[in-house]
Structures are given as structure tokens and as C-alpha cells.
């Protein structure tokens, strides 16, 4: 007896042979290209489709960057001042710390999906790192004979102008480096890290050189700056690295190399690059012409020098502007640096054009000369930024 089509004995290969021989002898009726309308379509989903729940539990929504953003029901008048210190201390009825404005601030931090943070020294002072401009900041404490302001020690034209200034600069760098080695990220850093962990942070631009972000899980920077761009952009470099001005090699900063005592002679003040020195000795053995040895500098950008990574940072900013950020947080900075101020203006306009939220968070109100873009600020949050995570709790 011939095997029936349902014969379980046949292997798939035998079946295909069977069908080939059958098609040679039997003429099949022509089938229509699509099934007639009376045939019910299979309701079975393809195997590779991912099941998507129609509703997510609120707990899951919180940690998913694709979670639906609730509609913003209240937007304060432009440049409304919110007193964070008063609010955290329990006051609720003052016009400067009412509950609606607190909700607006929470909304910006908890639901924005493409947040840009532009940070200054104010986010790190709580870790014990001095800022620049306050009464006990570096510009005051570094003042001394021959230094009218500590700002001089961050001026390229000054720090390498003579041996005495060079020694002072080295002293300041080694002390700051030691300080940065022993501190940890602040609560504010951890809050921004959580936003990044939830996939809602587009970028953190920091003017700080303390590299505290590198101690967090999701705010890593990258040196040198290249694609794919890291989450954190160190606008003014990092105290933890040094680089050669000739071969551009980047090293971890070794404070031992930066002599700071008065008995050190001139040639010790700016250390030499080991890589260049090695190449130079090889050239000498080979009887080749000397090309000189580069000098090592802390990888921080000083006043009056061209930013070595200015073009790359410009590219990151352009990319982020195109990405339509929906929230800008300018925090812990008075925006005294013109380049950073211009960048903030660009982001503020872009965010506002897309009906996003612009926040200014600092212990003081924006200066008068920032008025031309203050109109883009939705809320000026006055107080210590470390109290924002406290408020969210
Ligand atoms: Zn070198």
C-alpha cells in the first residue's frame, strides 16, 4: 500500500521527493493569488513579535525612558523665582515656594526625556571642593603677594610667565589634585546619575575639573573627546590628567612631577614628557637630529588659551541641539565664561521652541547682564542644588 500524506514514517527529505514526483504526474488546479474573502485570516502573531503590555505599572513607568510623559498642566510665568531653602524648611504658603511651582520642578526632573545639564562649581562645593568666585573660593584664597586675584593662577599668560608664578601654579594644582582624590560625588551628582540611568539624560556639560562624574555609574567622560560622545563633557578638562604639548600623549596626573617648593630651579617647574624623552634618546643613538622634548601640563583649560577640544565640543552641542532637548538645567554657575553662556543661550532657545522647560538653579539670581536670555528661563530656583534630591524624596 502506498504511503498516505500523513504517513508518520516518512522523513522531511522523503516527503519533498514524494511531492516532486507527484507534481510531475498530477496537474494541480491553479490557486488564486490571495485567499478568498471567506477564508478567515490567522489571528496568530508571528513568533518574533515582542509582547507589549497595554499598560505599564507606575513603578515600571518610572524606570522606562519610553514611558508616556504626562501632560504638563501648569506652567509658571517666565522667570518665576522658587525659594528652594524655604520650601525644604517646610514653608508652603509664600508666593516664592508654593506647591504648584514645586510640582512644576518635580515634573521637569522626573518626566523630561532629553535633559541637558550645564553645571558649574556649585554642584561640587558640597563635596568639599572650593568654588572660584565666592568669598572663600579659590579666587580669594589664592590671593597673595604678586597675585591680585586667584584668577591669575588660571591665566595661561600669567602662570607660565615666571618661575615664581609657575611654582604657585604647581602648588595650587597639586593641592587641588589631592583634594579631588579624596572626595566623592554629591547627592546632586547621584540624582543626575539616576536620570542618566533611566535613559533621560542627553548630556551633562560640566565646567568643573574635579572629574567627580567619573566616580558614578552612568556619567562617564572620555579623554580625548571623540565619537561616540560620552555622557559627560568636561568643558574645561580634568585635574586628573596631564598631557604633552608636543606629542599630545595623555597621562594620569602625577603630582610628584609638579615641583612647588621655592628651592626648585626653573627647569623643574614644567616637567618633561617621558615619551618624547624616550624618542629623543632613541634618535640620539641612531645618530638622528634632535627634535626636542615636550612639556607636561595639567589637562585643564586656562583663561587666554585656545581650547584644544573646542571643535569636538562644538560638534557635541550641535548634535544635542538637533536632538530636540526637552529640559535644560543650568546649575551651580553664574555663567561668567562667555563660551558657556553662549552655549546656554542656544540650548535655552531650542528647549523653549520645543515647549520644554528651562531651569536656573543657583544660590543667587542670574546677573543683570543675562537678562537677554533670562526670558527663556521658566523657573529660577534659588538655593543649594543639593536640596533638589531632598525635595524629590
Ligand atoms: Zn611628549
TrEMBL record:
Recorded GO MF terms: histone deacetylase activity, NAD-dependent; metal ion binding; NAD+ binding
GO CC annotation, single: mating-type region heterochromatin
Residue ranges of the region described as Disordered: 1-55
GO terms for biological process, alphabetical: negative regulation of transcription by RNA polymerase II; pericentric heterochromatin formation; regulation of DNA repair; replication-born double-strand break repair via sister chromatid exchange
Secretion signal span: none
The organism's place on the tree of life at top rank: Eukaryota
Keywords: Metal-binding, NAD, Repressor, Transferase, Zinc
Binding site for Zn(2+): 244, 247, 273, 276
InterPro entries: DHS-like_NAD/FAD-binding_dom, NAD-dep_sirtuin_deacylases, Sirtuin, Sirtuin_cat_small_dom_sf, Ssirtuin_cat_dom
Active site: 236
Gene3D superfamilies: SIR2/SIRT2 'Small Domain, TPP-binding domain
Every Deacetylase sirtuin-type domain range: 95-393
Ranges of compositional bias, category Basic and acidic residues: 1-20
Pfam families reported for this sequence: SIR2
Family the UniProt entry places it in: Belongs to the sirtuin family. Class I subfamily.
PANTHER family named among the record's database cross-references: NAD-DEPENDENT HISTONE DEACETYLASE HST4, NAD-DEPENDENT PROTEIN DEACYLASE SIRTUIN-5, MITOCHONDRIAL-RELATED
Protein name, per record: LANO_0G07998g1_1
Species annotation: Lachancea nothofagi CBS 11611
